[in-house]
Amino acid sequence: MTNLPWEERPSGSHEVMWRYSANPVIPRNLLPDSNSIFNSAVVPFRDGFAGVFRCDDTNRRMALHVGFSKDGITWNIKPEKLQLEGDYAYDPRVTFIEDRYWVTWCNGYHGPTIGIAWTTDFETFHQMENAFLPYNRNGVLFPRKIGGKFAMLSRPSDTGHTAFGDIFYSETPDMEFWGHHRHVMAPAPFEVSAWQCMKIGAGPVPIETPEGWLLFYHGVLRSCNGYVYSFGSALLDLDRPWEVLARSGPYLISPQQPYECMGDVPNVCFPCAALHDPATGRVAVYYGCADTVTGLAFGYIPEIVEWTKKTSLL
Ligand code: BMA
After folding, report:
1. How many A from CA of 60 to the centre of ligand 1?
2. Where would you tag: which of 56, 236, 264, 294 has the fewest CB atoms within 10 A of its CB?
3. Cβ contacts of residue 212 below 8 Å, gap of 6+?
4. Residue 262 C-alpha to ligand 1 middle, in angstroms?
5. Would you kindly state where each structural domain of the chain is located, as residue ranges?
């Protein structure tokens, strides 16, 4: 991929992942009536990129909007909402599988659950049945079938600001009937890795590596000042992704910059998409910052894989 957004690690930095120096890449008011644009998903599309963006409007209603970009940094987001069935829509992920782009998101149906739709052109979207009963969030598809089935990670939850949450694996032959549910990961003990001790949820679409699926996931700490969202990495078995091979004890990125610490919900780094270039190993992660704007962080996949193994808490 020649046009992957990229900036080298700053000289003198020892960080495994580092932030784009021009963060945030998407401001909260890119649309005339957007309150915030964050927790959004992008994929390579034609000679550039397409994306599905979480845009909360100035009524503070949550909806998804389509956008396009040549360089992954400057985005043209359509002002009209994606027309989807559901009371609200947020935190999208987009996965290309075989011949089409699949969108999963948190869909309002008697509480949050996982919505699914597909498109080939980012103009027409075909909505499927919701994957699961409510309450569920953070539905993330794998980019290919596993054992002949489509596969998804998700995070069963509740109606509110869920104070618990494990990542589960489910599969389907047809994107409609889901089953074979497996437990993947629970929050870590507070004494071992506090940033991920209250709840965790899958982030971007997992990336296939020779060492397993590289999963970026968010973890939450309940502090005396509220929830703090950071993200780290795990390696899942390629054929049995509910088996965790390694899981980072330290976080990769936690809220430290002003745009991550200040906003509508302070102290949130929430990744929902990653672009990567197998030839160079480069990865660019898009993450929501403080539920307000969108930022980018970079790294090299082989380094992140090694670091995940070296720091693993398993
Ligand atoms: C979660 C979701 C995310 C949000 C986060 C922090 O429960 O609602 O969309 O980024 O809380 O507010």
Report:
1. 14
2. 264
3. 235, 236, 237, 238, 245, 246
4. 15
5. 20-310
